[in-house]
Amino acid sequence: MVNLGKSAKSPDYHPRPPANNRHPIAKFPQLVPTNLPLDMVIYSCHCEGTVVADARLYADAVLADVHAALSARRPHIAMRLFEQILASGQAPDSIPLTQWITSSIGREGLSGLALAYATGSCSYCTRGRRECSPCDGTGRGENGIVCRACLGMRREPCETCRGTGLSGYGKCPDDLRSLVLSYRLCIAASGAARLVPEDGASPPELTVEACLHRIANLNKLAGVLDSAAVELAGQQARGLISPARLERVKQRIGKTYDTLDAAIRVTLKRAVELSSLAVGDQSPDVLFYSWLARSSRFEGTALHRNSAARLASRSTI
Ligand SMILES: [Zn+2]
Ligand SMILES: [Zn+2]
Question: In this structure, are residues 251 and 191 in contact, taking their beta carbons and an 8 Å threshold?
Fold first, then answer.
């Protein structure tokens, strides 16, 4: 593809002023052998800027690799390749990014790429939780009373990802963010369907510890909704979402949050029952879980999810 012409070692090689860095090869530094200076390659190239592959062809070729990585279940590699295209500025700017991706690797490729971003991990925590700092991971605060921050779970939600364990929306290209948001709402809804007890049924847990485990998992999904609500507000502020879609997504978030909120409360009540049997109904733990189950927004605890709660039907704001 590239005629390097005279090499640096050639006796008739004479240095020249730096070559024009607008030459096409300057956009593809990865094609240049590492032992050759880019300026010299540009100067030596006899193509006069016409032979090097068209930028769009190059971007399409890398996009095909993105598709291959997705097919091989290597989402991290797919995202890295895609980010390489964006960083090199080779994605066409004449059509929307999603349209280009669809025309090149199909709707399946677009969905796969958005799903890769939707399920990408937060790099600041392990699965959304970190050791609780207020209680140093003991689950207990002053006087041995259950820690309010982690509810005695010893670990608290990661502040960066709101306990979701997922990467921030900021990592995702603007054009894919609304699709990523939809996928994350699917993740929250399907997780809720698995974790929420059947209507009227009491959670099957037999220990307070097990109740707290279920609550932590429900709260992780509530975090997904909370970060989606914040992202939605950002999209609204930037005029990136139509009023009709905005309303639909708000309702979706609110409805799933209602379900999670109810499941958390019923599980807290189960913890109260179990704790009462073990340590008596006037123990500080029982009083705390009992208060929490009746509190309006779980204020001051790891369960407080104000952005999502505002969209819930039971919201009074
Ligand atoms: Zn704690
Ligand atoms: Zn995190």
Answer: no
